[in-house]
Design goal:
There is one protein chain. With about 140 residues, the protein is an all-alpha fold. The chain folds into two domains: about 60 residues, no CATH class; about 55 residues, Fumarase/aspartase (C-terminal domain) (Ribonucleotide Reductase Protein R1, domain 1, Orthogonal Bundle). It is built from eight helices and no strands. It is elongated, with a radius of gyration of 24 Å.
């Protein structure tokens, strides 16, 4: 059975920026005018910060909004790819947690690396190795 795609599941904040460009062409009177005014104000502020002509950013936002709207996301495939890493995606979170528990950054890094390297070699998963590491347990 094929995984279900979720169109447009990413880029919501980007679409909020580009939304003004679309509203300028849709809606009625007052709503349309307000959307256009907000959109133009955004473009002017961006031009002041970047020096990029407003029409360039306007065009880019419209193009990128169209691409992101059509983007297909397969959550099952994403989870499968994360699982292939054996839990290594949590190494940064562990590093921060160890330092918050009072471990020095250098010692925390050594503990994380000592348990992460076997996972890269395919010798187990990160969580299991951490549970077996007495030094990590003691912190």
């Amino acid at each position: 059975m094929a995984a279900q795609a979720q169109p447009g599941a990413v880029g919501k904040s980007f679409l909020t920026l580009a939304h003004g460009a679309r509203l300028c062409a849709a809606g009625d009177g007052e709503r349309r005018a307000l959307a256009r005014a907000r959109h133009l104000a955004f473009l002017r502020r961006t031009h002041d910060r970047t020096g990029c002509p407003p029409w360039t950013l306007d065009f880019a936002l419209i193009v990128w909004a169209g691409l992101i709207d059509k983007l297909l996301i397969y959550p099952a495939n994403m989870q499968k790819n994360l699982d292939r890493l054996g839990g290594l995606v949590h190494s940064q979170r562990l590093l921060i947690a160890l330092t918050q528990k009072g471990c020095s950054r250098e010692d925390a890094y050594k503990l994380v690396q000592r348990n992460a390297m076997p996972v890269w070699r395919g010798e187990g998963d990160f969580q299991t190795l951490l549970k077996q590491d007495s030094d990590v347990k003691s912190i």
